[in-house]
Design goal:
The chain has 448 residues and is mainly beta. The chain has helices at 2-8, 319-328; strands at 13-18, 22-29, 38-44, 51-56, 70-75, 81-87, 91-97, 101-108, 111-119, 132-133, 138-139, 148-153, 156-161, 164-170, 175-178, 184-187, 191-194, 205-208, 212-217, 223-228, 238-244, 253-260, 266-272, 286-291, 293-300, 309-316, 330-338, 340-341, 344-345, 351-358, 368-371, 380-386, 389-395, 403-409, 416-420, 429-433, 442-447. The longest helix has 10 residues, at 319-328.
Length: 448
Amino acid sequence: MGCLYVFLFMEPEIMTLNLVPIIRDVIVEDVNLDNKKDLIVFSTEEDGYEKKLSIYYQQSEPPKFDEKFSFSLQIKEPCSVIFITRIENNHNFLVIANSEKFHIYRFEKNEMVLERTIQYSNAFSYNAKEPVVMRDISYDLDDDGTDEWFIPTPRGVTIFKNFDPLSEIDFHIFHEIYSGNNMTLFYQFPVIYPLKKSKENPKPVAFLGDKEIVFAYGENWKLTKKIKIERKNPEKWDSTYRLGDINNDGFPDILFTETQGTINLRTTLYMYISEGEYKYPANPQFEYKIKGAVALPVLKDINNNNKDDLILFNIPLGLTNFINFFLRGKMSVETKVFLSDSNSLSLKPDYQTTMTMDAPDGKDQIAYAIDDFSGDGILDIAYGQSHNTIQINIGLQEGNLKTKQWIKLNIPAFGIIRTSYINDNKNKDIIIYRPTGENKERLDIILF
């Protein structure tokens, strides 16, 4: 049935909006509560300090977006972060935040009305040139229809409820000052991971800081449990971390990626898999080493069995890739898939392949996304194959990201892809925008 579905599937519809000025991010949300998904486009001027929100209402089914059915808000407040929050069952509010204040706006007909302002010191910057949308900061963990906020601070995270702080959770954050030609302050935001499978009310939430994971639970999340997670390489050059659920026990498993070197890169992935309620081993159960490559790991459930798998994108820095890059303007990206095996990951890739694509210029980013674009429950991959081609490979029924070419779309390929349900089917749709390069005023919507 999966293969038959592919052949019967019609070409996706592509809509393009030409906007001014630089598009920083896009949010898909039902702004006017008419059960149709609308677009919120977050943009800035060239200097980054003049910021604007533009709302485009969905007009029909199939969806259509047009400048005639939109309105804009010039952001006057210093701003580094925006996020959507839900209050009193589906009433969406938009929060504009900086290091000192939160400005809460409600959507009302064709305008946004300032509901209130909250003053609270936090870890956001005051007025960023490249502001961001934070998607993992607002959750409803007590099922009352109103979201809680999880606001990073220099000491940890503060939980807000109904615009007031409820609890402060302290833990170590990687927060350092680097000296050089210019002094630089570096802050690494903690990973926030709600335990959505928990039967407790409110549901617990996990925070991953520097060398420790902290759980907050109980009434108003006042109870905490800290677990040390020791990294293996004390002289790390760079590190990233991810949380997922490999063994489907409801508790997060921890993936550390550590990279050393500049020319002779050495990357090691360590996975700590939970051993039950708030229990973790002293040593990682999974370890995988890579030499001579830049690695980007992703934790996602590939085969729809409620267990996250490890997808590892590698960009080899060997001679072949250098020749391709300088002579042909091409680069190779290796994809390795480690499927969850019982309560762990396989120590060897279950599947691996290589994708060749045009190399970006300057600050351009290679566009890619992993999601279910065909609606069959198996993950597919979309990526920029060339300067003007987005290729989508459909996942096969084996369910381990084995793919075959499905669709090629003739649109500018470099940029950032967001995926969301826009129309009324099981297929994830694509929005691609480009904060850098020659197409930074163009937004493409791909509807499946």
